[in-house]
Specification:
The protein has a single domain, classed as Spore Coat Polysaccharide Biosynthesis Protein SpsA, Chain A. It is built from 7 helices and 8 strands; from the N terminus they run E-H-E-H-E-H-E-E-H-E-E-H-H-E-H. It has helices at about 25-30, 50-55, 70-80, 100-110, 155-160, 170-180, 210-230; strands at about 10-15, 40-45, 60-65, 85-90, 95, 115-125, 150, 185-195. The protein has an 8-stranded mixed beta sheet with strand order 3-2-1-4-7-6-8-5, with helices on both faces. Helix 1 (about 25-30) links the parallel strand 1 and strand 2 (about 40-45). Mean pLDDT is about 85; it is low at about 1-5, about 200-210 and about 210-215.
């Protein structure tokens, strides 16, 4: 692993943003307050029509990229292609990064080269009353996938990044494909994300199981294809 420098950070923080002018500034403040050094921040504006661009551009340390609206998976793939770090931390443009998250996750990956990604736990800023608790930690809505993960960039590239055809559930689909390819990941017990519920977000109020079933169906189809290749 190369030694990070001011021009070659070990960690790249990637944020896909779409019409989050009311939140993205606070999100970026929580990212820039991290105690890990050095790191870069890349925001891909997925065709916002509000004031998101101006707010992001007001942060000198943040790299701003814009694309036509293509969904969060495509936006994150754009950010991955532009990133220089060996570790890729993903967060959403309306959530807050918990203090110390980058240091916690980067140090774990450094100390455990056999692990390709680490996730963490979440606390909700404004949880809706219907959120259920998971069986392992007792946290509302379980372990966050998209906004809590830090990946090895090489592992993301190896599995082809995010599937841009998913408009939601792209994070879970990515983890399913990583596990298929033998890339290990785990959940750290610390809270790394303060999450905001918004009914207007891509995941707000949507049935998660629909996208999960699509991912699992894809997994079964790929396994069936490999079996047929083996038998032929």
């Amino acid at each position: 692993m190369s030694t990070p420098t001011d021009t070659q950070p070990l960690v790249s923080v990637l944020i896909a943003a779409y019409n989050t002018e009311a939140y993205v500034g606070e999100t970026l403040e929580s990212v820039l307050a991290q105690d890990w050094r050095p790191f870069e921040v890349i925001v891909v504006d997925d065709g916002s029509t509000d004031g998101t661009a101006g707010i992001v551009k007001s942060f000198d340390r943040v790299r701003y990229l814009r694309q036509e609206n293509s969904g969060p998976g495509a936006a994150r793939n754009t950010a991955i292609a532009a990133a220089g770090g060996e570790f890729i931390a993903v967060t959403d443009s309306d959530d807050l990064m918990a203090p110390g998250r980058l240091s916690l996750q980067a140090r774990y990956l450094i100390e455990h080269p056999e692990v390709d990604a680490v996730l963490g736990r979440q606390e909700w800023l404004n949880p809706p009353s219907w959120l259920a608790r998971d069986a392992l930690y007792g946290d509302l809505a379980g372990v966050p996938v998209g906004g809590s993960a830090m990946f090895r960039r090489a592992a993301l590239i190896a599995v082809g990044g995010y599937d841009p055809s998913f408009r939601s559930g792209e994070d879970t689909d990515l983890l399913i494909r990583m596990r298929e390819r033998g890339h290990s990941y785990l959940v750290l017990p610390e809270v790394v994300l303060y999450r905001r519920f918004r009914e207007t977000s891509l995941t707000g109020g949507q049935a998660f199981h629909v996208q999960l079933l699509r991912s699992l169906r894809g997994k079964l189809e790929r396994e069936h294809g490999r079996q047929e290749e083996t038998l032929s």
